[in-house]
Amino acid sequence: MRIPKPGFIGRYSLLNFWIPQSALIRQHPLYRLERQRQGGIALADLSRHSLSLLAEICAVIVGFPLIVLIYTGNFGAITLAIYDIWSSMWLLVGIVAVIVLDVAGVWVSVGSINRDRPTMLWNLLRATPLLRWQIILVKHTVAQTRVWNLVIAILGMRVGVVIIGGGYWVKPLLGAFHHDPVRGIFILYMLLILMAMYILEPLWRVRAMVAVGIVISARVQDSFMSVLAGVGSIGFLWLTQGIGLLILLRFLSHSIAFDLGNGLDGSGLIMAAGLLSIYVAITYTYYNQLRLRCLHRAVKDAFRE
């Protein structure tokens, strides 16, 4: 059975922004069965639930510094110290939460196929006219909904940190625009692209990590070996990201040195803006290709005779 193609609204709905193709998957007959078996947030409620939880977390993170500011009445040393501690705390919590997200993303999906194989359910699925890639995509979608609260919690923390951190950049940015408008535009561009990547990266990440768990479940039959493969995949992801970040920082330092050596003529700033754009594009492509390749491989391995 083919999933009917969505209209304009379905194709560009907010639901597809959260989880790709989920506006279609919610119509699939297998989706209801998988959700009953696996749990997770219903796709019909996903957008409303996500926006509500996102707003609540942002309100907590942004609200506390505002209360402190209202209580003290000024940006004195004590207020700034509380401001800095609060921001740093949520940055650290966000890093720990990403590690938890990687583990949870693989954990909820690493048994999605190999646990069904010993049962009659998998044989029944193979015998149905359902397209094989649709079956894998349903499992991928349902697994994401099982960790969705954690994803939105991380998004909320990051949006809150960006809002709080924006206060640090207002004065330097206004000064840059006053002295050199072109330079100010490039600085603003780099800040915006970094903030956008910082906020959206958990969405890209969870799609890729759940897909990694799916392909492991399709290839590895033993549960213990599946867990080991999942841990190895998480380690490999962090290693490649660390190497990429070190390369970026090295090139950025050269760009800044080049700009300083040329009397702040803006050439190094242009290079830095280009490097950041390339880094964001590579990061998104990395996550997206990892997701697609894992799902394609899972289709082949899951239905292998």
Task: Describe this structure as you would to a colleague.
The protein is about 85% helix and about 0% strand. The chain has about 300 residues and is mainly alpha-helical. The chain has one domain. Helix 5 (about 45-70) crosses helix 9 (about 150-180).
Secondary structure blueprint with pairings:
Elements: H1 8-11, H2 14-18, H3 22-25, H4 29-38, H5 46-72, H6 77-109, H7 120-127, H8 132-146, H9 148-179, H10 181-219, H11 223-261, H12 267-302
Mean pLDDT: 84
Taken as a percent bin, the fraction of beta residues is under 5%
Task: Identify low-pLDDT runs.
Answer: 1-12
How many domains in all?
1
Helix-strand topology string = HHHHHHHHHHHH
Describe the main β-sheet briefly: none
What gyration radius follows from the Cα positions, in whole Å? Answer: 23 Å
| Total E-strand runs | 0
Which class best fits the helix and strand makeup? mainly alpha
Counting DSSP H or I runs of 4 or more residues, the number of helices is: 12
**Quaternary form:** single chain
Which percent range fits the helix content? Answer: over 70%
Shape designation: globular
Our measurement of the CA-to-CA distance between the termini, rounded to an integer number of angstroms, reads 21 Å
State the main characteristics.
305 residues, mainly alpha, 12 helices, 0% strand
Write a short abstract of this structure:
The chain is mostly helical and 305 residues long. The protein has twelve helices and no strands.
